[in-house]
Amino acid sequence: MYQDYITSKDEAICHLFLHCCFKDGNFSQEEIDIVASKFVDLQMHRDLNFKEELVHYKSYKLAIENEDEYLQYLIKLITPVQDLALYSYCIELCLSDQQLSLEEESLLQKIATLLDINDQKPVIDTLFTQRKAVEIEKIF
After folding, report:
1. CA distance to 98, 102, 140, per residue, from 19 (Å)
2. What are phi and psi for residue 123, nearest 5 degrees?
3. Which of 8, 30, 67, 132 has the fewest CB atoms nearer than 10 Å to its CB?
4. What is the dihedral of CA 37, 86, 8, 53, to 10 degrees?
5. Cβ atoms within 10 Å, residue 114
């Protein structure tokens, strides 16, 4: 079903970001705003309508039978050149609610594997966890 909605690189990036942000099952307005800001920052809003993509994502999210295949499909469409940057956005979105659930941690592991960055994953994870802690606690 998701293949009907996701046919371009920008759509794949958008849906990957949505999946990272909403993996824990929360659909708060704050998280939606965070994904929307990334959407604008990366200038994907020129070719895509964020609200439509969000509706599409919500329509098929519960029907994803095999998350590995879903992620593989998205990464294949994205064909990332800057794999660490893509992964860092995924971490940032998973941490957007200041928590990292077991589901989100598993998702990040799957993405790291698909991007072939497992050897760098621990350092990147620690970096983003510390960045989030600094943002929250306002201390270094």
Report:
1. 16, 14, 30
2. -70, -45
3. 30
4. -30
5. 18
3-class DSSP assignment, residue 27: coil
Round to whole Å and give the CA distance between 34 and 86: 16
Q: Give me the residue label for tokens 């940032």.
A: 92
- How far is residue 85's CA from residue 83's CA, in Å, rounded to a whole number? 5
Predicted model pTM: 0.88
pLDDT in tens, 60-113: 999 999 999 999 999 999 999 999 999 999 998 888 877 788 899 999 999 999
Closest by CA position to 52, among listed 9, 93, 15, 107: 15
